[in-house]
Amino acid sequence: MNLTVPPLPDVAAGREPEPSRASSCRALQHVGMQGIATRLQWEDGTRLPATADVSVDLAAGQRGIHMSRLYRLLDRLDESPLTPAGLTTLGNALLDSQQGISQVLMLALHFELPLRRPALLSDASGWRHYPCRLELKGSREALETILTLSIDYASTCPCSTALARHAMARDWRHWVEEQRHADIDAGTVADWIEHQGAFPTPHSQRSRAALSLTLSPRAAFAAADRIDTFERLLQTPVQTLVKRIDEQAFAERNGANLMFCEYAARRLAEGCDAQPDVTGYRIEIVHAESLHAHDAIAVVERDFEPWRPAAERAGSLAKYEPPR
After folding, report:
1. Rounded CA gap, 228 and 209, in Å?
2. 108/34 Cα distance (integer angstroms)
3. 3-class SS at 68?
4. Neighbouring residues of 215: CB distance < 8 A, sequence distance ≥ 6
5. Which residue among 81, 87, 123, 125 is least packed, with the fewest CB closer than 10 Å?
6. By three-state DSSP, how is residue 11 classified?
7. Per-residue pLDDT, 315
8. Considering the domain 110-157+202-313 in this protein, what is its CATH number?
9. CA–CA separation, 94 and 105 (whole Å)
10. What is the C-alpha separation between 51 and 53, in angstroms, rounded?
11. Whole-angstrom Cα distance, residue 285 to residue 269?
């Protein structure tokens, strides 16, 4: 069926009277769209729901950009696996679609990467969805790729642990003094521990690290491998399905990896420094305190110049959001 459409007005093309001359002469730094629902095909062929933010600059003397052209190009993200080279090609196509009125691109793709995670000791396992963001920014000659990964982990307070140990030692001394001249051997100690009831426990909390990595032009995204590396450095990533043996192992890991937010930031920075295809980074740490009503934070960066649209600056992947 052929559909005949009569000519329709096109304000952006200049065929409608402009409200005022000033409205079309000033250059604009960012014009585009935020929160576009789309779908992308990841490196391994998995298709993932995503949202996209895209904007370009607008030269002086131009009324507006061609938004629908940007949308159509983003709508093709699931046609082939996304690679760094493919992302750069997409960025150039987005700029080309504006036919010379734009020279600078800002693109952000938000999605969650599903990874199957085994328990620490048992045969249990479950899915984790890791929030990720891919950014492409710059001009045609210098498009830069930034990969942001968000990792949740447990952190146990070193100060609180020391206080808990002190309280336990105090209670032990009091009990020993009450026994007077009774023989105390290893079995007696074990029995006291087993039947003591609730011991003082250090406070711990679910914590989050957001790592924004500037990738070299030939680097692979390798998001899953990078997440594995950072979780090994932290030692206490949150778990999925666990059995009692796994929960005990997790408690032991927390006891062996006491962490202030400063410790986590430095561990992860060393991990980034060891990756030759990472040319710069920004790491944001948030420990959602269980002792306090506020969060503890730490930030470390190296050779990093982020671009964030207004909506993105209002929050961060590292910001802890309680369950709804």
Report:
1. 13
2. 9
3. helix
4. 84, 145, 146, 147, 221, 277, 278, 279
5. 123
6. coil
7. 47
8. 3.10.270.10
9. 8
10. 7
11. 11
Pair type for strands 278-287 and 204-215: antiparallel
Q: In what order do the strands lie in the sheet with 104-118?
A: 28-41, 47-58, 104-118, 125-139, 144-156, 204-215, 278-287, 296-302
CA 29, 35, 37, 41 dihedral sign is positive
Nearest to 240 by CA among 117, 157, 112: 117
Q: Which single residue is written with the structure tokens 């979780």?
A: 231
CA-wise closest residue to 83 among 180, 215, 235: 215
Higher pLDDT, 144 or 195: 144
H helical segments located in the chain: 67-74, 84-96, 158-179, 186-195, 223-234, 244-256, 261-273, 310-313
Q: For residues 103-141, b (16+ Cβ closer than 10 Å) or e, as one string?
A: ebbbbbbbbebeeeeebbeeebeeebebbbbbbbbbeee
* φ and ψ at residue 168, rounded to 5 degrees: -65, -45
Alpha carbon distance 186, 18 (integer Å): 90
Distance CA 239, CA 233 (A): 15
Q: Is the pLDDT of residue 172 over 90?
A: no
Helix (H, G, I), strand (E, B) or coil at 191: helix
pLDDT at 159: 74
Cα–Cα distance for residue pair 3/17, rounded to 1 Å: 28
Handedness of CA 20, 25, 27, 30 (dihedral sign): positive
What amino acid is encoded at 154 in this protein?
A
This prediction's pTM: 0.84
